[in-house]
Amino acid sequence: MNVSVVDVSAYQKKLQVEIPAKKVQKELDSKYHDLAKRARIKGFRPGKVPRSILKSYYGKSVESEVSNQFIQESFPEALRQSDLKPLAEADVEEMRFEDNGSFTYTATVDISPPFEVEGYKELAVNKTPVEVTAEQIQAELQRLREQHSELRTLESDRPVAEGDVAVIDFTPWADDSVFEKGKSTDYMLEIGKKSLHPDFDEKVIGHQKGESFSFELDYPEDAPTREIAGKRVRFDVTIKELKEKTLPELNDEFAQGLGDYKSLDDLKEQLREKLTRQLEQRASSEIRQQIIDQLVAKVEMEFSRKVVEKEIDHLIGLLQHQFESQGLKIDAGRFNTPEVRAEYRPQAEKNVRWRLISNRIAELEEIELTDEELEQIYADIARLLRSDVEKVRLEYADSPFVEQSKESKIQEKVLAYLEKQAVHKEPVEAEDISAQE
């Protein structure tokens, strides 16, 4: 196989591949030999059809099959020989069988453009102070009490109050007809949570079990439920039962009942540690986003529209998967519209830029995956595929799936490196900003 590369632009190469005549003719002979055994052509006995006749009937089909086979087999090796790493699927063109018996084709390959990455060390970033307040710990404790609360049915006839759970039936009316999708029976309405409408709970407070009543609520134009957006809706409500929520006492016994906690103070301390880790992770994510934003803004590069479109396809695929994972079946065509693609284009361009920048920094700083990290990637993929790790290593080592996982891990290591190198700026207080202005 002969491989040559021709420059098209700074970010595109034209790969020219030639399969030797001897190999081509051997494959064609094999195809026609097999075809001769199967072909049924009037006037000829099976296996006795001359090749010239077979070629007149099936020549285009045979050549198409052989050419596709050669391209699939030779293209990965041609990329390795020419040391090209495509950013998108190549466009194969100009396929032909030459007069000398060889087969040639060309492919336009999108590659990483030349660019410089400077000043990526000691980037100035703002770091949010990590400080867990007493109020945050108290909020976590209250959340735990809510999770372990008990509901007690009230026998007395007192009216509904804040914090109660009312079991209700309700029927909404819009445009003088029942809004069937909004009807509900035995709905557990926790007063104060405002789960149905910001003003719904207030309309229920003060009423009693067994009472039926009606009220109207206005919905904004941007309400998520289209059928009632921008409309005034009447609700017919019946209170069937009233329950009172009882929260457990906040003491050592409560803490010990939650798990391996010696006391309430021990629970508070472990909550503090958990919240600290969460705040540190959030602060780290914010710093890393600042790093990405700064480098993407300062590094100049050019790449083809095709590479961006591929990334848009990826983002739309993630969106569709997110809906499907929630059990929502939506026509894929609704995601892949010109409007949706236009909305995702800026993020797609940013993703491509950052991917190329991080790969370049990894090269400059010799950031690579360890054997342990590679093994973990294979193990994670094997678990997803419900397969054996060794099988993944042997059969999927060069697959796009594995390559993407490797690239993601490299990006993670690059960001960790840049975060350590970054310079943390002191946060600017609001009054200081006013003074500067």
Kindly describe this structure.
The chain is of the alpha+beta class and 437 residues long. 48% of the residues lie in helices and 19% in strands. The chain contains twelve helices and twelve strands. The chain has helices at 21-38, 51-82, 134-147, 200-204, 252-258, 264-298, 305-325, 338-364, 371-385, 389-395, 400-421, 430-436; strands at 2-9, 12-19, 91-97, 103-110, 124-126, 150-153, 165-174, 177-178, 184-190, 212-218, 232-246, 423-425. The strands form three sheets. Strands 6, 7, 8, 9, 10 and 11 form a six-stranded antiparallel sheet that branches. It has a four-stranded antiparallel sheet with strand order 1-2-4-3. Strand 3 (91-97) and strand 4 form a beta hairpin. Helix 3 crosses helix 6, helix 8 packs across helix 11 and helix 9 (371-385) packs across helix 11 (400-421). The longest helix is centred in the middle third of the chain and has 35 residues, at 264-298. It is extended and about 100 Å long. The model is unreliable at 433-437 (pLDDT under 50).
